[in-house]
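pasting for ref. prot 1 ->
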Amino acid sequence: MLTGVKNIIFDFGGVIINIDPQKTIQALRSLKLYQPEKIFSNPNSSSMLNKLEIGAISDNEFIMYIKQFCSPDTSSLDIIRAWNAMLLDIPQPRIKMLQLLKKEYKIFLLSNTNHIHYLSYVVDFEKSTHGIKFNEFFDKAYFSFEIKMRKPNIEIYKHVINEQQLNPKETLFIDDSLENIETAKMLNLKTHWLKEELVDSLPITSLHQ
């Protein structure tokens, strides 16, 4: 058991699911998109990504935005496939870890994500678990595109804490972003910053040390 911990909040990308943004950059480059890496760094593009992740624009609006920079014969499906290329696998040890932890703790997911990715990884996740529904692994899953906020906005943490009536001192937050971890600390959550190690390789009893 984790000493003093009753609740665990997991990030998703890079923690539960393996991701590789370079694969999306490569896939977009194959669609003749010039310097696709700028989608993640250009202020206008970054704004579009942020809007997508907080549900401020539709999937189609985002797809049309990217499409205008690609070769003329690029289809919406091409964009979706390229955008989802960064989503890799959810290893079985992590699925088993969630199942075991849920027997002892309240388990939550708090993810900056978008609806396009959500549709993809939920299907893949349920294939990996032979039909067990994604939400069954968590007491509740929170997605930025649904609640119109994203980490590290402190309000998204407050939303989860207040809705679930969590005691921050009894709640462990695990994320691979230091910025997200620092915000969690401001609310007195126990934290573990996942750096290079894999979450399924961590000794459960030392997660918050």
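and prot 2 ->
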Amino acid sequence: MTIDEAATAAAAPTPGPVPADPSQRFHRREGDRLVAPEGALAFRRGMGLGGWLLPEGYMWDLPTPVDSPRRIEQLVLDMVGEASAAEFWTEYRRRFITAGDIAAIAAAGFDHVRLPLNSRVIFDGRDLLADGIAHVDDTIAWCREAGISCVLDLHGAPGGQTGENIDDSPRRLPELFTDPDAYAQGLRLWRLLAERYADEPVVSAYDLLNEPLPEKRSELVPRLADFYRDAIAEIRAVDPHHLLSVEGWNWATRFEGIDRVWDENSCLHFHKYWSETTTESLRGVLELRERLGLPLWMGESGENEDGWYAAAFGLFEQHEIPWTFWTWKKIDRPTSPIVITPPRRWGEVIDHAAGRGPVPPRAQEILAELLDALPLAACTIRGGALDALPGISSRGPSTVGSQDPADRQNPTDPQHPTDQEGAER
């Protein structure tokens, strides 16, 4: 089925009998497995939606100084002014991910998406923001139409949980754990999200924090444990059913200090980048699964070449570990299935971002061209990245946009902060 056909044909599943046990309506843990409402294996194969509500600099092919949402926003502001910048971001969020993207993801064979949330976009510190949360509601509706589920991933918590570009932290510090106000806001945000989606079975899990605490801030791991405990209490006060995802620290690779059963309906969530594709490389998480009896979820991996994808994701399947690829769409980065063609004068933006050139004289035109390049129909599809993943096929979405005839390869995408840290992934 092509993506155009998928977008037309996708419809909400026909409701079945209402289960006697309300928890059976939701994705859940059964022993060391994750299952869908109908009892089938859940989270078998998913796709991350990075770059949308929380863009990172490398996803725009920008130099390191402009690597976080705040810095990208400042770059756009410097180039076109406040009013035009606001209009740009409204259009960017409207076009970057649409119903067509979700239908394409489903048509390729994925069964879920992981939606990274930037707290600044959806939350003002007290209440949910209507414009921001509308994007979450839309994604859930599109997933329902496509017959897949949606994980809510707190990628950028209030104050920042990592202290790097990936969490949009204002001072490059993990202030979620050191600022009492940020900590309280993080708890409130999860309570509000749980209240809003408590009865929504298309939401398959709450991913409590993305990649908290690099190794250099390991002294804060006890505070991370406190946050997991308190956030789960806030969620369970209003939502007894949704699956909870607990990520390790140090780029979701380590569980010392948090290796426990936090909730009976929870899983352990790890990430894997740029490391050996051997069973030995998974030994630590496999032993955790056996010791705690909890399901594993490999929630993020990618930014490599197709041969590595085939080996790594095949390894996850061999060990019955559900996985989610990172990420769907980037500007001129051939490590993703969908490649956005950069504007013709994008090099002027890169030079300005790097401090090598002035504000591009035709900045408005460049950003308008970028907006036109965002929809799936304007993008290039790298079939090799999709076909390297087990159970996934590029034949579904290949008729939208163009197929890259060279199917370019980029050995790695080095701008992820884990590469800078030298973490073993």
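The chain has a mean pLDDT of 91.
The chain has one domain: 3-11+25-421.
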